Amino acid sequence: MNAVILLGAALAARPNFLILFADDMGYGDPSVYGNPTVGTPGIDKLASEGVRFTQWYSGFHVCSPSRASMLTGRLPIRSGCAGTGPLGGVFRADAVGGLPTNETTFANLLGPAGYRSLAIGKWHVGQREEYLPTNRGFDEYYGVPYSVDMGISPWRNGKDEPGERALPLLHNTTIIEQPCDLETLTQRYADKADDFLTKAAADKASFFLYLAWSHVHVPNFCSQKHCGTSRRGRFGDAMAELDDGVSQVMASLQKNGLDENTVVFFSSDNGPWLIQKLEGGSAGPLREGKTTTWEGGVRVPGIVRWKGTVAPRVSPQVVATYDIFPTMLKLAGVEVPKGLVLDGRDMSQVLMNETAPTAHQCVFIWKGVDGQAMAGREDETQAGTNNVLSSTGPIPGLWAVRCGSYKAHYVTNTHLASQPVVQNPPLLYNIEYDISETYPIDATSQEYQQVMAGINASRAAHIATITPVPNQMARGTSSQYDLCSDPHSQQKYPTLSNCTITPSTWSIKAYTGGDIPYSSFGPFDPYCKPTP
């Protein structure tokens, strides 16, 4: 049976969709991608039953822009979510802006087509009510709306900033817990997913579930169940907890008879946060990590499983997180709105036919937005570290382009040195030969000249499609948009951080061997005993 017949048969039974999205998980973090000390049996099983991609690209090198890209099928430069300058950035906890309301999410299109929906977990494309999931096409939302280090919790090491709020947990647009109890969060996410899947199965309803885990972004929290279970220490414990959550959700699909009619996507928003040292992950053989446009910053684990329809295998084809949007629409039989410019490509043919080529002629890797002289500008991607840049001259926002097996770097940086380095001439690598981007091709060679001519032409053609839009992150921050359930809570709880409504969640059990309240250990960073 050929791929066309297979795809036609699949479309006759419209599938459901499940997106499992990790936070800051590097290419080398799951065991199925080569990690020798982190055990991820759930992710490994998912990979063994699906297509494990070895060349899957995120939409950006940090959280918010990458998520905006996945939700819209468009590079974040098109939505104004790529940061305020060439280095990129993320939405703060009190951001004024967010993913613009005139941007179309996949939820906006699948909902009217008869799909019920739920978003669980990290959102991070705007915390104001108009930007939250229930106002972006989702029926329901349950989660922490940004990174877990963007609010005070007993898991976060270091001094609290004046006026900073406790980390909130939301249901739809209402704060239901502050601070969020991170020790039980992953299990509650899995339970919420199970409840949603059980009800959808009982109602015979088509659905899509977007579950964005808070793991493995710092601080690496976990439950007592996973405390001290990994040879990789606290980071490994967090990986184990995420993996257990994946296993539970996949078990719910099977329990509810949804296993063979649900397309499951698994990936990460960007590469590992290397400045966190042992608290961050690994890019494996790839160079660098989060906050850079080297492969380690943007090439991430990627798995697609459609049991009974897509043959399990390992695929070297180039795909991207923003391909999820057009792929779901194609499989659901929903048309892309006329005039909507997408950077994502339908990957259904690649899934159905292992000999099908990638739909991406080139992958455009933006670092941020075009900027003028960078002297004195603070690096947004290293928030809180006051890394002031000293570069002079205009710095482009598009730092790297991959076409075929070649990748050109026009500007580079490292996770330790944020200052942009303009590469003149651009660095060129054959990254299917040189996966670690170690040996640049000689700029005087005929190979270099021929390849760069094509890449430069593709780069110019892509830039010509970019329409300037209001910069959402440049709208800044305002304390009036802090998520605070009780701004006068310290009158009731003077020893606890402001906005507290659930004082019991200032205590943790997992890393202390007992129920020790937050005020008792302050900045102390508790650890499990190492696994023998």
Can you tell me about this structure?
By secondary structure, the protein is an alpha/beta fold. The protein contains eleven helices and 16 strands. The protein is globular, with a radius of gyration of 22 Å. Residues 1-12, 373-392 and 512-526 have low confidence and may be disordered.
In short:
By secondary structure, this protein is an alpha/beta fold. It has helices spanning 3-12, 41-48, 63-72, 106-110, 182-203, 233-255, 295-298, 324-332, 348-352, 446-463, 518-521, and strands at residues 16-22, 51-57, 116-121, 141-143, 169-171, 174-177, 207-212, 262-268, 299-305, 313-320, 362-366, 398-403, 406-412, 421-430, 507-508, 516-517.
